[in-house]
Write a structure and sequence with these properties.
heterodimer; A: Heat Shock Protein 90; 7 strands; about 30% strand; B: Alpha-Beta Plaits; 3-methyladenine DNA Glycosylase II, Chain A, domain 3; 3 domains; 4-stranded parallel beta sheet; 11 strands
């Protein structure tokens, strides 16, 4: 696994991916090819009742495709955690799921207020969740680490006062890190 | 060849359809949790590979076209020695005046030679489950497997969770296995002279007796619905006033007929448990488990019927009344158990082991992911043309299911009457 954080103006970027994907990773995220299919959803801020709907729909879709059940569970975990993050921490946002023949790319984009320090947010146990989120059983500080653990490529771009853009890619075939 | 065999495997189902009675109302189509039913040419058709015998359809059928086929009581007379293995919900079907012991004695008068109660071994079953949980730390949560409808639900809709199912015989099957050997030994009888019948509150248990999942050996000879023998038991009970023979009973275990009691007994300082009942609640929970959202639980008790086995559709009594009776009986009766150590030892020796259960996935549109994607694209296109009312009039459960049926060549776009009517109106306006 290789990861790097780069700073440009007030925006920070975070990359983490399988080494086999390193060369292609930037291209895959910044200029994704035309997907076979696309699903899109909106996420309301602080709506803890409806949150999880997008990840459920994505999971159901992959079941219909016959994606390997273990891969499916990884997609479910990563997309749910990301969805919860948007619900708990942002002012609301959108989810775009691009489905290809051999992988899925899911992009979460919110409308702020942004992550101050992505590197710190990646540390297990670190959390800025408010009281409501904690009362609902969220905010254990495992969201981003869990997303990282379950995805083959993770890209985050954020900064104080700006939107957070989070992209997850998961291969349908289990490819070991070489 | 073997591949072909697998494809055409026939499934036994206790839930059956009387085509002559069916009026094609589509109520069953809409409640089925595995989308196993369609109405075609005015009659319901059940997909045998998808049906899990949960009996949701039986409950909503307004004309009793869907019914549950119990084995007849007369089957027991084919055997020289007959054992009844009774579910924990059996005793709660009879009022307090009749009482627990008379309900058991009535079975002897019906022709059974011996009775084994699931309630006898609930304590040791809890010990066994705890041991299983502790010796399988890599599997969390462990899911209860004593409700056959749930086992089949997991196999068809949640294939990734099949490995989480408790891979041990269910309590009633444990008893059947144990008693078959015991009776053969003590009575000097041959295997085929012993008839073992389960007295059950639900259709999926009948299915499981005829087509068990994972069992190594023939365990039961039939399953008889509680409702099937209820009136005969009531008749006999009137005559039982003078019968004062002693009979063993194990009241404390009856509580397992109520959802949550199993989870409560299995729980320990190191074992967190959760109990869920009712098929749609179970589906929600399984979906959360699949997404690793309930990993904090070590054991989850899952029951097809609301409230647990007292809610079984083959019971006669109202589930809430039955549950309150059980609580009363348990309070009144002293604790009594069979030789738990012996049973536990048998478990440790692997006597109750089952084969690895296999998923039976019905979800994918095609074996090949590329073809499935191509089909999914068509499904989405067709879905856009449909009204999204999920009215079921076409005979498929939802608009999405109709779109899938069309893509799979099982339905036509014109099966949607709402769309046809709207198109007609539009052309009239023009």
């Amino acid at each position: 696994m290789g990861s790097e954080a780069a700073k440009s103006n007030h925006l920070s970027e975070y990359w983490d991916c399988l080494s086999s994907l390193e060369e292609k990773s930037k291209e895959l995220i910044t200029n994704p090819p035309e997907p076979e299919m696309q699903l899109d959803f909106t996420i309301e801020a602080k709506d803890y009742i409806k949150t999880g709907r997008a990840s459920s729909e994505i999971k159901l879709f992959l079941k219909k495709l016959g994606v390997n059940p273990e891969i499916l569970r990884r997609v479910a975990v990563a997309s749910y955690e990301a969805e919860i993050n948007v619900t708990a921490h942002s002012n609301g946002g959108t989810v775009l799921a691009y489905i290809y023949q051999d992988y899925i790319l899911i992009i979460f984009e919110d409308t702020g207020p942004g992550i101050e320090d992505i590197e710190r947010a990646m540390i297990p146990g670190f959390s800025t969740a408010d009281e409501l989120a904690r009362e609902m059983g969220f905010g254990a500080g495992l969201g981003l680490p869990n997303i990282k653990k379950n995805s083959d490529l993770l890209y985050i771009r954020s900064g104080v006062g700006s939107n957070t853009y989070l992209a997850i890619m998961i291969l349908f075939e289990d490819k070991q890190d070489v | 060849m073997s591949e072909e065999k697998k494809e055409t495997k026939e499934f036994f189902h206790a839930v059956e359809l009387d085509r002559d009675k069916c009026v094609g109302c589509t109520k069953c189509v809409r409640v089925c949790p595995t989308e196993a039913i369609r109405v075609r040419e005015g009659k319901a058709v059940i997909d045998s590979t998808r049906c899990i015998d949960c009996s949701q359809c039986v409950k909503v059928c307004p004309v009793n076209a869907l019914y549950i086929k119990s084995d007849p009581l007369s089957d027991i007379y084919k055997f020289k020695y007959r054992l009844a293995v009774i579910s924990t919900s059996y005793e709660s079907q009879f009022s307090e005046e009749i009482g627990y012991e008379k309900a058991l004695k009535a079975l002897l008068h019906l022709g059974f030679d011996e009775i084994a109660e699931q309630a006898m071994i609930t304590n040791v079953t809890a010990d066994i489950i705890r041991d299983y949980i502790r010796s399988h730390p890599q599997i969390r949560p462990v899911l209860s497997s004593n409700c056959p409808a749930i086992v089949r639900l997991v196999q068809v809709r949640f294939p990734s969770l099949v490995k989480n199912l408790l891979h041990i015989e269910s309590p009633m099957s444990m008893l059947a296995k144990y008693y078959r050997d015991k009776i053969a030994r003590e009575q000097g009888l041959k295997e085929d002279e012993i008839g073992i019948f389960l007295i059950v509150p639900s259709s999926s248990q009948i299915t499981a007796v005829h087509q068990p999942e994972g069992t190594y050996k023939h365990l039961h000879d039939g399953a008889i619905a509680i409702s099937e023998i209820y009136s005969q038991v009531m008749d006999i009970q009137k005559k039982l006033c003078d019968d004062d023979t002693e009979i063993s009973s194990f009241a404390n275990g009856l509580s397992w007929a109520i959802s949550g009691m199993e989870a409560e007994e299995v729980a320990a300082d190191d074992i967190e448990t959760l109990a869920v009942s009712g098929i749609h609640n179970v589906i929600d929970i399984l979906s959360n488990i699949e997404s690793h959202r309930l990993d904090q639980y070590d054991y989850i008790e899952l029951k097809n019927c609301q409230l647990g086995c007292v809610g079984g559709e083959l019971n006669v009594e109202n589930p809430f009344v039955a549950a309150s009776r059980i609580k009363k009986i348990v309070k009144k009766t002293k604790r009594k158990e069979i030789d738990n150590d012996y049973f536990f030892r048998l478990y440790k020796e692997g006597y109750f082991d089952v084969e690895q259960l296999e998923p039976r996935s019905i979800m994918e549109l095609d074996k090949d992911i590329r073809s499935a994607l191509a089909k999914m694209k068509k499904v989405k296109e067709i879905e856009k043309m449909l009204p999204g009312l999920d009215c079921g009039v076409c005979g498929s459960p939802t608009c999405r299911a109709l779109a899938e049926d069309i893509v799979q060549g099982r339905s036509k776009l014109d099966d949607c009457l709402v769309r046809l009517r709207r198109m007609k109106k539009k052309s009239e306006v023009k």
